[in-house]
Amino acid sequence: MSDLKLPTPAAWGHHTVPITPAEIVGQLTQETKQAIKLYDVLPDGPEPCRDAPDYERVSVTLRLPETLFDQLMNGATGYRAHYSAGVETGEKFNRELVKAIAPLLVEAEHLYQDKFSRVFCQRSLCGSFTKLWYSKELTDPRAQAYLLSLGEGLQGATLEALLERSS
């Protein structure tokens, strides 16, 4: 990650506590481990895939501290900044994030064994189409009325990994 051409914080225009991409990955990993330990992250599914009716996926919502969420999603070294440097750069950073936390979630079989199998969870969370993104509470078109009723600041942050099973 050290040879990346990410925007400078001044050029990016969003100010948050400085952090490197590797530190983001490390902190996200620690937050995932803590959430698993506290049963604060529960994989959900199987969930039908809207775009491919014969596919199902697992979704996981991980609550993050406000600063880490801001650094991850909005900071000059975060997710969106990587994509601004190029799709390939963004995809590579997404894969690093997924590789850091998906195996931890798959390993925590006690969190989901009553809903689906470990194999399904692994195929879904570790698949090549796995993406980390904002929670459906923020991105679902049905949430528009609710979102318009909020003030300008986000009042809680979740991150969701929506994952497709490869068949």
Describe how the helices and strands are arranged.
Layout: H1 9-12, H2 21-37, E1 44-48, E2 56-63, H3 66-74, H4 79-85, H5 87-107, H6 118-125, E3 131-134, H7 136-139, H8 144-148, E4 158-162
Antiparallel strand pairs: 1-2, 2-4, 3-4
Helix pairs in contact: 2-5, 4-5, 5-6
Molecular structure report:
The protein is an alpha+beta fold. Helix content is 45%, strand content 13%. Helix 2 (21-37) packs parallel to helix 5 (87-107), helix 4 runs antiparallel to helix 5 (87-107) and helix 5 runs antiparallel to helix 6 (118-125). The two termini are 31 Å apart. The model is unreliable at 154-167 (pLDDT under 50).
Beta-strand fraction estimate: 5-15%
Number of helices: 8
What is the terminal separation in angstroms? 31 Å
SSE run: HHEEHHHHEHHE
Give Rg in angstroms.
16 Å
Instruction: List the strand order in the largest sheet.
Output: 1-2-4-3
The number of distinct β-strands equals: 4
Low-pLDDT stretches are 154-167
Features:
single chain, 167 residues, alpha+beta, 4-stranded antiparallel β-sheet, globular, disordered C terminus
What is this entry, summarized?
With 167 residues, this protein is of the alpha+beta class.
